[in-house]
Amino acid sequence: MEKMTLTPFEDVLDEFYGKIGSPARDKHERKVDEAVHAYQIGEAVKKVRLKQKLTQEELGERIGVKAAQISRIERGGNTTIPTISRVFKALGIATATLDLGAAGKVALW
Predict the structure, then answer these.
(1) What are the residues whose beta carbons fall under 8 Å from the beta carbon of 27, sequence distance 6 or more?
(2) 8, 24, 70, 105: which has the highest count of C-beta atoms within 10 A?
(3) Within a domain: residue 72?
(4) What is the residue-level pLDDT of the chain in tens, covering all 109 positions?
């Protein structure tokens, strides 16, 4: 039987997207970060909605969208800050801030 070799994930990334700091690798890393953040927002929405015993349809009715859009948000799909603002306000979350690191924090609503 042939001996199996394992390739470190970092080496795979280097091969497909280039070394850290290359334009293609930076683009890939940004896309991954965006997807993770969208997923985290979706999970937060879902957690609060379920805690309030709301269906996706009921939350959608509160902000004037269909349940499919709430589902898309909860799965980490693309959405806008105004839509997320309406969702969180409908869930009773009165304030939110965006941490811009060294640039400080910005109140979203």
Answers:
(1) 17
(2) 70
(3) yes
(4) 789 999 999 999 999 999 999 999 999 999 999 999 999 999 999 999 999 999 999 999 999 999 999 999 999 998 998 999 999 999 999 888 888 899 999 888 7
Burial of residue 67 (CB within 10 Å: 0-12, 13-18, 19+) is: middle
- The domain that holds 44 is classified in CATH as 1.10.260.40
Provide the 3-class DSSP secondary structure of residue 99.
Answer: strand
| DSSP structure class, residue 98 | E
What is the pTM for the complete model shown? 0.80
* Type of residue at 40: Q
Would you state the structure tokens that stand for residue 9, as one six-digit string? 């994930």
Residue-range definition of the domain harbouring residue 56: 9-107
Residues 6+ apart with CB under 8 A from 13: 25, 28
Residues 6+ apart with CB under 8 A from 39: 75, 76
How many folded domains does the chain comprise? 1
